[in-house]
Each structure stands twice: as C-alpha cells, then as structure tokens.
C-alpha cells in the first residue's frame, strides 16, 4: 500500500467549520447596511431635542402670547372699555324698544303661577257656581300675582290649554285616519285667528261704548283663552264615549265658561260704570251689560265650532 494512502487512512480527517464574519456595528450617523429605507425619525427627534435644549428641562421656552401683549397695551384697554359701554347702551336700547311693543315685564306677572293656583283655577273653570268672592286682590294699587289670588288672570293655563288642544285635535284626526300636518296646522291657525278676531272686536266695542276700564289686551287674551280647557274635555270625552260623551261634557263646560265670563267681566266693565256714577238703568250702562253678555255668549259658540268636526 502506498505510504500516502496509509497516512491518509491512519490520520483522522479534520472537519472544516465556516468562518464567522464580524458585522460592523453601525455608528451614529452611519446607515445600517441591511436597512431598506433611511430612518428619518432619529434626525427629527434630534432636531426636536435641539429645539428643546434652550429651555433646560426639555420644554419649549415660554414666550409672551399675543393676547397678553394686546391686553397690556393701555390703548387696547381703553378700546375694550369703550366697546363694553357701547354694548351696554345697545342692550338698554333694545330692551326699551322690545318693552314698548312686547311688555316683557308685564308678561312675567301673568306667568307667576304655581301648582296650587293651577288646580284651583281649573276647579273654578269647571265649577264656577261654587265660588263666591270674585274680587281681584290689590296691594298698593297693584294686583297681586296670580299664585296668591285665584281670581287674577294668567297666561299659563291658556297657553298650555291651546297647545294641548292642538295635540288632542291631532289625536282625534289620527283615530279617524284623517291626520295630516296641513290639516293640523289649519286647526291651530284657525283657533288663533278666531282668538285674534275676538280680541279686536272687544277692543273696538269698548272704544265705541267709551268704557274706562283697567281691562288690558293681555287680560282679554287670558280670559278668552280659558275656553280651550272645556274644548279639551269635550274632545277627550268624545273620543272615549262617542257623541253622547262629547255633548254632555262640552255642554257642561259651555255653561261653566258662560257663568265664569259673566262674573269676571262684570267686575271689569260694569264696576267701572258704577264708580263713574252712571245710572244703573242708563243707556250707556245697558250697552256695557249687552257687551258683557255678548262676550260671554260667544265662548260656547266658538267652543262648539272648533270641536264638532273632531268627533265622529
């Protein structure tokens, strides 16, 4: 055998291991050779850090705002004071003009009610026969608030009754498959139109008869708006019990509102005639009595006219 072959056979063959190549550590500012895109976040963070550096704690340095600079200027302070005075004068002017056409301060009086007053007033509207004292109470020539006197007129009950009447009318039309927004709007607008015509007719009649009374336009709206309470009762009873329930309840409410209006307006119209020394059987006093009766008699007619078509 050949010596070289013996040597090759006798000596164990060494295994060759792959050599390890050192990957250089990327230095700051040097790109990673395995990175596909450049990392710009570090540069931005370094940029932000460079901007925050002057503050000392890593926060941006405080600087004076434009608002503070503006307020510190004495000229701007004078301008602001002048603007505030102009705004106050404008508000006062608007309040005066609004109060001239819409007496906001007087309207507050008519909404000064509470739960007890509303309950007593509703009872008075349905059962005026049980009430004895109809005089309105005064305090230093000024009528007391409605919550202290059940005889005082208010606008809370008429306003809520009108809204409820429109809703009940919509309910009645819906049960008869006749509901539509146009028809409901026509119902509400017709009720308002009749109320407006009533007020204008009464004011014209008082002017022609030359009645000196403390009965104001808002008082008339309040007294004439009480009829919506009886209209609501009649329509609801008509929905529950049919025509019989409608006529029974509406008839009771019509008589009640007639008595209520007679006893209320009598003190507002006829009492002024007595204070003026007008003879009880005089011609002018007779006209005032007829006017009171006409206003009271118109309420049941309108109550029926505005509700009879809602009950089938």
UniProtKB/TrEMBL annotation:
It holds the Pfam family YIF1. It is found in: Endoplasmic reticulum membrane; Golgi apparatus membrane. Residues 1-54 are annotated as: Disordered. The chain crosses the membrane at residues 155-174, 186-208, 220-240, 246-266, 287-306. The keyword Protein transport applies. Residues 13-23 have a biased composition (Basic residues). InterPro entries: Yif1_fam. It is a multi-pass membrane protein. Keywords: Endoplasmic reticulum, Golgi apparatus, Membrane, Protein transport, Transmembrane, Transmembrane helix, Transport. Belongs to the YIF1 family. Has a role in transport between endoplasmic reticulum and Golgi. This is Protein YIF1. It comes from Vulpes vulpes. The gene is YIF1B.
């Amino acid at each position: 055998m050949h010596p070289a072959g013996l040597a090759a056979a006798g000596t164990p063959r060494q295994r060759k291991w792959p050599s390890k190549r050192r990957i250089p550590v990327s230095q700051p500012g040097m790109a990673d050779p395995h990175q596909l895109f450049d990392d710009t976040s570090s540069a931005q963070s370094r940029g932000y850090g460079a901007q925050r550096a002057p503050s000392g704690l890593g926060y941006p340095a405080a600087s004076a705002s434009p608002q503070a600079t503006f307020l510190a200027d004495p000229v701007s302070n004078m301008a602001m004071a002048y603007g505030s005075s102009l705004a106050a004068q404008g508000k006062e002017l608007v309040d005066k003009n609004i109060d001239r056409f819409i007496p906001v301060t007087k309207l507050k009086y008519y909404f000064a009610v509470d739960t007890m007053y509303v309950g007593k007033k509703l009872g008075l509207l349905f059962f005026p026969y049980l009430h004895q004292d109809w005089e309105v109470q005064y305090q230093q020539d000024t009528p007391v608030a409605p919550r202290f006197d059940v005889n005082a007129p208010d606008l809370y009950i008429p306003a809520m009754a009108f809204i409820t009447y429109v809703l009940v009318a919509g309910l009645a039309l819906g049960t008869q498959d006749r509901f539509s927004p146009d028809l409901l709007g026509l119902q509400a607008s017709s009720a308002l139109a009749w109320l407006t015509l009533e007020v204008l007719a009464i004011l014209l009649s008082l002017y022609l008869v030359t009645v000196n009374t403390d009965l104001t336009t808002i008082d008339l709206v309040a007294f004439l708006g009480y009829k919506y309470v009886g209209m609501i009762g009649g329509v609801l009873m008509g929905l529950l019990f049919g025509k019989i329930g409608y006529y029974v309840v509406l008839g009771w409410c019509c008589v009640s509102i007639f008595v209520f209006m007679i006893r209320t307006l009598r003190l507002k119209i006829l009492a002024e005639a007595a204070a003026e020394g007008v003879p009880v059987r005089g011609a002018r006093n007779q006209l005032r009595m007829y006017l009171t009766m006409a206003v009271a008699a118109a309420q049941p007619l309108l109550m029926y006219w505005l509700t009879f078509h809602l009950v089938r």
